[in-house]
Amino acid sequence: MSGFKPGDATAVQDLFEAIAPRYDQLNDLLSLGLHRLWKRQAIAWVAPQPGQRCLDLCCGTGDLALLLAARVRPGGQVLGLDAAAAPLAVAARRASLQPWLPLQWQQGDALATGLADGWADGAVMAYGLRNLADPAAGLAELRRVLRAGGRAAVLDFNRQQRVAAFQRLYLRRVVVPVARRAGLEQHYAYLEASLERFPTGLEQERLARAAGFSQAAHHPLAGGLMGLLQLVA
Questions:
Q1: Residues 51-69: what's their mean pLDDT?
Q2: What pLDDT score does 19 carry?
Q3: Using an 8 Å Cβ cutoff, are 17 and 184 in contact?
Q4: Is 218 exposed, middle or buried (0-12, 13-18, 19+ CB in 10 A)?
Q5: What's the CA gap between 99 and 138, in Å, rounded?
Q6: What is the 3-state secondary structure (H, E, C) of 18-41?
Q7: For the chain, how many helices (H) and strands (E)?
Q8: Contact indicator for 109, 45 with CB cutoff of 8 Å
Q9: What's the mean pLDDT in 132-139?
Q10: Mutual orientation of helices 85-95 and 9-31 as an angle, nearest 10°?
């Protein structure tokens, strides 16, 4: 069992500070590169346009922020926000290879971004909602910073009974052993514990509507192992 407690903001931040140097490599290995396809599906829903202002909450090492920034040129702006400094440093190094992209990075709290109401035309969050101390509050903050009619996409593991046994098997027999070789066993053992408290797709839809979203639809991906919550403010 992981020593990282789901819902503990400090512990989760420490976890991502530690795994940042290997995060992208392990994502590619453990998902066989499919996480990139799922992230592009999230971007396709948001449908960013030139000149728009977009937000990547819990941006990590910047995958989605980089995709957004390529689409809002010219005249647009993308802000990547994350609680941990180490992933942001990786994101900034990646962005420095494409200095023409309209990107900014900010260390901050996804539950209290400090952004103005309606700041963003579109927003994304990948593998972040599950790690928040209060997912409902995270959805409420996401709605607050999104303009009326703006779209958001939330990508994460899917908590679904029919795939739960396979998920546990995959996490225990594949993910954790691979992470162990990288010296990150406890960090990735946390995934199973975090799933136990994560809202199901239907629960996410209800929470999103309670947060003020006019539309909320959760779609299973990868045979139900992952899920994409599509939102309209």
A1: 97
A2: 84
A3: no
A4: buried
A5: 30
A6: HHHHHHHHHHHHHHCCHHHHHHHH
A7: 9, 7
A8: no
A9: 96
A10: 40
For the stretch 182-186, contacts whose Cβ atoms lie closer than 8 Å and that sit 24 or more positions apart, written own/partner, are 182/22, 182/26, 184/18, 184/19, 184/22, 184/26, 186/2, 186/3, 186/4
Sheet holding 120-126, edge to edge: 103-107, 77-82, 53-57, 120-126, 146-157, 226-232, 215-221
The amino acid at residue 17 is E
- Phi, psi for 43 (deg, rounded to 5): -65, -40
Q: Are 64 and 39 in contact (CB under 8 A)?
A: yes
Question: How confident is residue 62, by pLDDT bands cut at 50, 70 and 90?
Answer: very high
Contact between 231 and 154 (Cβ < 8 Å): yes
Q: Tell the burial category of 14 from Cβ atoms under 10 Å away from its Cβ (0-12, 13-18, 19+).
A: middle
Low-confidence winner among 17-31, 35-49, 142-156 (lowest mean pLDDT): 17-31
The stretch 203-230 carries a mean pLDDT of 96
Q: What pLDDT, on the 0 to 100 scale, is given for residue 4? A: 66
**Amino acid making up residue 125:** M
Q: Which two tokens stand for residue 204?
A: 């996410």
Task: Select from 1.10.10.10, 3.50.50.60, 3.40.50.150, 3.30.70.20 the CATH code of 9-232.
Answer: 3.40.50.150
Locate the domains of the chain by residue range. 9-232
156 CA to centre of own chain: 7
Q: Please choose, from the candidates 163, 147, 151, 146, the residue with its C-alpha nearest in 3D space to the C-alpha of residue 217.
A: 151
